[in-house]
């Protein structure tokens, strides 16, 4: 895939996911906006507020002037406080106000992306106040695709309206999450040199990946089948996603959600360190 094709593919995946969110919310009764999600402290309204806030900052909109309450127990650090401010500001907004703002942001961001002349490898700024950083344009689009699609799934689980688990955004997210597996297995879980750990993921987005640890303790990942791996995980894609994004702890899953074969001690260490993004 060429650089331009990569940019276009990520843009299309972002568009599909954020428009899916808008379609999901359009017929939503007012009381459903208060349903809790798996994001600590955040309701459906709060997740949508977060999506609006990040896309608005990327458009160059000023952040709202607002003081956070001091009793928000889910705020653990300064980054969480930064992200919470525009979310808390919108907690008094009505459902029509929320859907109108989201639709307007989608129109503006879609136009900005369509008219962008930025090259795939050009350095751009991710605006996040004191947490801002530079990264290649293609990586910015990739991050935004992952974030929007993962939050689409947060909303779908909260509203019990599953869907789009194999959409373009799902494919982008899968690839991003897979990149972190070697570190989880080899470094964080301390899998010994020469070991192999297989992940057999089922459901709408099926894949099989094996993480191998070389003699120097470095991990690598491939799609070949490992004969007699030290550990083999079998789980569905939604469970994999929830674990990898920190939406659920391994011990909170129902029995049988993750089937483990092989070294159970190593398997438990891997599951304890499985959060790849938030």
From TrEMBL:
SUPFAM superfamilies found in the cross-reference section: DinB/YfiT-like putative metalloenzymes (SSF109854), SCP-like (SSF55718)
Keywords: Isomerase
Any one GO molecular function term: isomerase activity
The keyword rRNA processing belongs to this UniProt entry's keyword annotation: no
Occurrences of domain Mycothiol-dependent maleylpyruvate isomerase metal-binding (ranges): 15-156
Domain MDMPI C-terminal, chain residue ranges per copy: 173-268
Family annotation (InterPro entries): DinB/YfiT-like (IPR034660), Maleyloyr_isom (IPR017517), MDMPI_C-term_domain (IPR010872), MDMPI_metal-binding (IPR024344), SCP2_sterol-bd_dom_sf (IPR036527)
Record-linked Pfam families: MDMPI_C, MDMPI_N
Keyword Transit peptide set for record: no
Alphabetical list of NCBIfam families matching this protein: maleylpyruvate isomerase family mycothiol-dependent enzyme
The protein's name: Maleylpyruvate isomerase family mycothiol-dependent enzyme
Species the sequence originates in: Kitasatospora nipponensis
């Amino acid at each position: 895939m060429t650089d331009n094709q990569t940019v276009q593919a990520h843009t299309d995946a972002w568009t599909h996911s954020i428009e899916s969110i808008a379609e999901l919310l359009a017929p939503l009764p007012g009381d459903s906006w208060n349903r809790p999600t798996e994001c600590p402290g955040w309701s459906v309204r709060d997740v949508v507020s977060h999506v609006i806030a990040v896309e608005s900052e990327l458009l160059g909109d000023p952040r709202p002037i607002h003081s956070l309450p001091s009793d928000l127990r889910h705020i653990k650090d300064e980054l969480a406080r930064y992200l919470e401010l525009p979310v808390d500001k919108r907690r008094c907004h009505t459902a029509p106000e929320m859907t109108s703002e989201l639709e307007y942001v989608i129109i503006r961001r879609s136009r900005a992306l369509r008219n962008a002349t930025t090259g795939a490898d050009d350095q751009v700024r991710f605006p996040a106040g004191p947490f801002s950083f530079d990264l290649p344009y293609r990586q910015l689009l990739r991050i935004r695709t992952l974030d929007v699609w993962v939050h689409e799934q947060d909303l779908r689980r909260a509203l019990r309206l599953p869907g789009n688990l194999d959409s373009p955004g799902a494919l982008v997210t899968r690839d991003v999450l897979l990149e972190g597996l070697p570190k989880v297995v080899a470094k964080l879980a301390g899998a010994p040199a020469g070991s192999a750990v297989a992940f057999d993921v089922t459901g709408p987005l099926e894949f099989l990946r094996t993480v191998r640890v070389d003699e120097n303790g470095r991990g690598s990942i491939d799609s070949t089948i490992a004969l007699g791996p030290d550990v083999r995980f079998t789980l569905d894609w939604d469970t994999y996603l929830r674990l990898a994004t920190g939406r659920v702890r391994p011990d909170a899953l129902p029995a049988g959600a993750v089937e483990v074969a092989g070294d159970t001690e190593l398997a438990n260490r891997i599951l304890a360190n499985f959060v790849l993004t938030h």
